[in-house]
Every structure is written in structure tokens, then in C-alpha cells.
Specification:
- By secondary structure, the protein is of the alpha/beta class.
- It has two domains: about 60 residues, no CATH class; about 160 residues, Nucleotidyltransferase, domain 5.
- Helices cover about 30% and strands about 20% of the residues.
- It has seven helices and nine strands; from the N terminus they run E-E-H-E-E-E-E-E-H-H-H-E-H-H-E-H.
- Helix 4 runs parallel beside helix 6.
- It is elongated.
């Protein structure tokens, strides 16, 4: 007969609040248990266990290893969080930050923290060529009946390019994202094209939303004015300019604060 799935046998010093049927073997490992996660799923008691330096995850069920690596993490203090579900504090090991510009973005995947930084990936991604990059500027010169369909085509093309280019970065066990850009809502076409200043703003919102949607992860929009690049020095990665620093700082911010 198989194991009792409803009531896993836990060793002394453990708790029935173990995530995904987790069990531990010492009091130190209880730090890896999620605070108040609710009822434990009915999975075998050894689906997940933590062991080794830094709380590395191991699984007796290979098919769940990807789920474990993306959903469960342990920070430097030993606290942990599950990357889905209302009410959880999302403490992720790795995050992506994207500093957005017209037609391109500086993308940085981070681990660790600003005090102990780890740069996992660093890439500049260009989305569209010169003919389509300034899409709202061009839309302002087009016949009104053609604008909506053309912008829809440009958006679809930009998202496809962003997803393809972001894929190698997101594959690095990234669980959450931060987009460094102005907050606000992309206005309707008549408003967006009414003045030259609004055209520029619309393009900023357009590319912000493209990168956010292309990540297909929980993402927070963070204003660049809220980030102080003076708090981070030179790191051994290239390129490493203002945009990369902003992207990295934003990514570390969302790893340390719960998403709402």
C-alpha cells in the first residue's frame, strides 16, 4: 500500500504546515516552512525537502522539481515563501528588472540582494526596427481609419520579439519581474495623438506594457524616480550603466517586498 497522503508522518521538531507535503529533519529546517499557508495539499510527505547550504531544494519526484524550483525559495534569513496564492509574502530568489525605453529595454536578472549582489543575466533587448519603433509618431501621420489596426500589428510584433528575446533570461528560475517606467494608463488614440508630448508619453506606456505582458510573470511597475543608483556600485558585468542599475535595483525591490 502507498503512503498515507492525508496525514504525512513528520519527524520531531516539524509542523504540519509544511508546503506541498514538505517534511524536515531538524529545527533549523523548519525555517523553510511557509507561514500560515493554509491546508497542506494531499501529496506524499517527501515530495519536497530542504537540505544542504542555502536550503537547496530536492525532490523525490522528478516531475515536480521544476515546480519546486520556481515556486519555493528560501532567503538569507531562512524564511521562505510560495510564489502563488493570495496572502503569501513572495520572497523570490531571482527576479528580472527591465528599464524601458522607446523600442528597447535593459534587462537584468538578479539574485541575492544589493548588499550581496548576484547578476544572473544582463541583456539589452531591441523590439522593433527604425520604421516601426516610433509607432505613435508614425500613427499621427496616418489616416485615422488605419491607425488602430496598424498599432495592433506593431504591438503583436513587439510582444513576439520580446518573448523570444526574454526567454533565455526568464528560464533562469525567474519568478517575478519589475518594469522601470512611468506609471499611468495608455490613453485612447484621440488623446494619445492630440499633442506631441502625449505622443511621447503614449510610446512610453506602449513599450512598458509590451515588456510587462511579454514576461508572463507577476510584474510591478516601478518609477525610476524612486530608485537611487548611487546605492549600487560597479559590478563585474557588461553593460553596466544607469539603465542596468535601475533594472537591478527594481528587481531586488520586488524580491524583498510582497506583490499586491
Amino acid at each position: 500500500m502507498g503512503p498515507d497522503l492525508a496525514k504525512p508522518q513528520l519527524q520531531p521538531g516539524c509542523t504540519e504546515r509544511a508546503s506541498l507535503g514538505q517534511r524536515c529533519t531538524s529545527k533549523e529546517q523548519t525555517r523553510a516552512i511557509i507561514a500560515n499557508p493554509g491546508p497542506s495539499p494531499k501529496l506524499p510527505p517527501t515530495v519536497l525537502r530542504t537540505e544542504g547550504p542555502g536550503g537547496r531544494r530536492q525532490s523525490n519526484y522528478p516531475g515536480l522539481r521544476l515546480l519546486a524550483s520556481r515556486a519555493f525559495s528560501i532567503d538569507e534569513t531562512g524564511s521562505s515563501a510560495l510564489g502563488a496564492g493570495a496572502g503569501y509574502t513572495r520572497t523570490m530568489q531571482r527576479a528580472i528588472g527591465i528599464s524601458v525605453h522607446t523600442g528597447w529595454g535593459a534587462c537584468v536578472v538578479v539574485g541575492g540582494s544589493p548588499r550581496k549582489p548576484e547578476i544572473i543575466g544582463n541583456k539589452v533587448i531591441e523590439l522593433l526596427g527604425a520604421r516601426e519603433r516610433f509607432c505613435y509618431h508614425r500613427a499621427a501621420t496616418m489616416k485615422p481609419a488605419l491607425v488602430k489596426e496598424w498599432l495592433g500589428h506593431v504591438r503583436a510584433k513587439a510582444i513576439a520579439q520580446a518573448r523570444s528575446a526574454l526567454s533565455p533570461l526568464l528560464d533562469q528560475q525567474v519568478c517575478v519581474g519589475a518594469v522601470v517606467a512611468k506609471e499611468g494608463i495608455l490613453p485612447d488614440l484621440d488623446t494619445a495623438l492630440s499633442t506631441h508630448l502625449r505622443i511621447h508619453s503614449a510610446e512610453g506606456f506602449f513599450y512598458r506594457d509590451v515588456f510587462r505582458d511579454a514576461c508572463q510573470l507577476p510584474c510591478r511597475v516601478i518609477s525610476p524616480d524612486s530608485l537611487d543608483i548611487a546605492t549600487i556600485g560597479k559590478l563585474d558585468t557588461k553593460p553596466w550603466g544607469r539603465d542596468q542599475k535601475l533594472a537591478a535595483l527594481a528587481a531586488w525591490q520586488v524580491t524583498s517586498q510582497p506583490l499586491t
